[in-house]
Amino acid sequence: xxxxxxxxxxxxxxxxxxxxxxxxxxxxxxxxxxxxxxxxxxxxxxxxxxxxxxxxxxxxxxxxxxxxxxxxxxxxxxxxxxxxxxxxxxxxxxxxxxxxxxxxxxxxxxxxxxxxxxxxxxxxxxxxxxxxxxxxxxxxxxxxxxxxxxxxxxxxxxxxxxxxxxxxxxxxxxxxxxxxxxxxxxxxxxxxxxxxxxxxxxxxxxxxxxxxxxxxxxxxxxxxxxxxxxxxxxxxxxxxxxxxxxxxxxxxxxxxxxxxxxxxxxxxxxxxxxxxxxxxxxxxxxxxxxxxxxxxxxxxxxxxxxxxxxxxxxxxxxxxxxxxxxxxxxxxxxxxxxxxxxxxxxxxxxxxxxxxxxxxxxxxxxxxxxxxxxxxxxxxx
Length: 381
Hints:
- The protein is an alpha+beta fold.
- It has 17 helices and 12 strands.
């Protein structure tokens, strides 16, 4: 592990722009956050399990649930759901290590893989926090996945060399990715970015397959031009003056208006266990609210339970808290997740990575009834 990548123990001072972004997010959640914890339960095609406004759900069809353990900070609500799943009737809560998560974590980017979507499609995991870009290609390939809700808006920073000042400048440049596999979240998200500005990913950029550490070092050395970085590693890039940010996904439109991580279920599980699906989703959304309402508690839980290690780096409480506070945890209440599916589907179709239309992917791989029912319950609570 390069010495530059050792976490710095500090409470980083937010810029005014960053502070406003966090403050707006926290404020949006604050007014209604208690309602979710206090509201009644409520959810039919393996469908939601009660009529709108009902206050009691049937018990889950199974008391065992398996969730992805990824090591990604954006997966914090999945990890924190362990605090709420028992009260939803789950007595056996299992966290299943996904391929590469322990070895590479999010690296300086994201683990080469799919945040558990592949394991979820295979029936090895019931729910995972999956990246919408790679979810789109998976759904296009017919994998049995169901997108149920969004968790956070885009939580990446795109760091670049001095040769790159805007996304348009990526034409002809060298881009670090863990893999050029269509299921890799970094590669597919970069494809979305490039398609958005009209750059042909086949002929107008060079993808360089690098680990997170190598991407960090080569950006410092000037041998590559851009690296897509997730918190808390983006703090390390800033602390060491490695490149400069040309895109902040949490603040810069249109990326800040769409989800990045989505709660994804195995289709067979969702269809056979509608009550369990709704209860699990509610627990994950409660955990998402916890990040906004009590970021200190959320960060402490993650640190104390060994959930902050990635690529050999164990992040301390201050760095973890900073990362949790950067995640706009109220977005699930405000954003329409279908907009995110359509946005990524259109961009990736333009990039040539999917063949399905946005309408086809929405019909094939989404079910918003559980989310909508929970939202209706909030309104009548």
